[in-house]
Amino acid sequence: MAGLTTQNFLSATTGLCVLLALSRGISVNYNVFALGNFWKDMIRGTLYVLLPLSFIFALFLVGFGVVQTFSESVSAITLEGNTQIIPLGPVASQVAIKQLGTNGGGYFGVNASHPFENPSPISNFLQMFSILILPGACVFYTEE
Predict the structure, then answer these.
(1) Residue numbers of the chain with a pLDDT score lower than 50
(2) Transmembrane region positions (predicted)?
(3) What percent of the chain is predicted at pLDDT more than 70?
(4) Of the candidates 54, 91, 99, 103, which lies 20 to 30 Å from 64 by C-alpha distance?
(5) Which residues pair with 87 in a beta bridge?
(6) How far apart are CA 143 and CA 21, in angstroms?
(7) Residue 32 CA: distances (Å) to CA of 14, 20, 100
């Protein structure tokens, strides 16, 4: 889990850093020294943008029914008397950064179509909105 979470954060922040360097390069008349520091942008993008947004977004997702637990699975008895294993896990926290960074994939392997990952129309709207919030905010990026 820690490996995928790290890659989800780093891939989203790398895209933001490239956009920052591109916009700085276009706006400062080709001054090489005005492009900024990639690592500084990477740390700031992760700590000040993605971590708070994904934390708040994960709280909203948990509130609307997305599973968030460290239990692996739950056993349930079906109507026929068989035992069924229901997978669980830290889904809300993974979905939050997955959608904010538009990384794709899904915790249960079927992207956002699993009922534990997308249980309600409101959670579906929040996930669609989170895909667009960072690119939409980058349109208004300006540095003085």
Answers:
(1) none
(2) 49-67
(3) 94
(4) 103
(5) 73
(6) 11
(7) 19, 14, 30
At a CB cut-off of 8 Å and minimum separation 6, what does 97 contact? 5, 8, 9, 12, 50, 54, 103
Cα separation, 23 vs 143, in Å, equals 9
Q: Is 9 left (phi over 0), alpha (psi -120 to 50) or beta?
A: alpha
Q: How far, in Å, CA of 144 to CA of 141, rounded?
A: 10
Q: What are the tens digits of pLDDT across the range 49-64?
A: 999 999 999 999 999 9
**What is the residue-wise DSSP string for 57-115?**
HHHHHHHTT----S--EEEEE-TTS-EEEEE--SHHHHHHHHHHTT----TTSSTT-ST
From the number of C-beta atoms within 10 Å of its C-beta (0-12, 13-18, 19+), residue 80 rates as exposed
Dist. CA 9–CA 45, nearest whole Å: 9
Structure tokens, 6: 């790290």
Average pLDDT, the chain: 89
